[in-house]
Write a structure and sequence with these properties.
The chain has about 100 residues and is α+β, with helices and mostly antiparallel strands. It has one domain (about 25-95). The protein has helices spanning about 1-15, 30-45; strands at about 50-55, 60-70, 75-80, 85-90. The chain is globular, with a radius of gyration of 17 Å. About 30% of the residues lie in helices and about 30% in strands. The longest helix is centred in the N-terminal third of the chain and has 15 residues, at about 1-15. The chain has two helices and four strands; from the N terminus they run H-H-E-E-E-E.
Length: about 100
């Protein structure tokens, strides 16, 4: 039994570590922070054609990457656990909507 626990313990700890920075997780629906940034980018760009490109969780705030329009022009946003957002900005052409 001890050998079994010793063999699976590293696997369990690896799963708790989360996804390494820069890697994306595929899932069917955006989490609340991702949804908040999708909405913030939609309001900022006045364009409802947005898609989640990826996100990187942090306890300080989740960085969310959003594609806008048919070309999926990259934007980013920081979302917080309380539902607020900040730092909505284009990653391709500052100031261009």
């Amino acid at each position: 039994m001890k050998a079994f626990i010793a063999a699976i313990l590293p696997l369990g700890l690896a799963a708790c570590a989360g996804v390494p920075a820069g890697e994306e997780v595929s899932r069917s629906a955006p989490n609340p922070q991702e949804q908040a940034c999708l909405q913030a980018v939609t309001l900022t760009t006045d364009n409802g054609d947005v898609a989640l490109l990826g996100s990187e969780f942090s306890e300080a705030g989740t960085l969310v990457r959003v594609g806008v329009g048919p070309d999926r022009v990259p934007w980013q946003c920081v979302a917080y656990a309380d539902g607020s957002t900040a730092g909505v900005q284009s990653m391709s052409d500052e100031g261009y909507l």
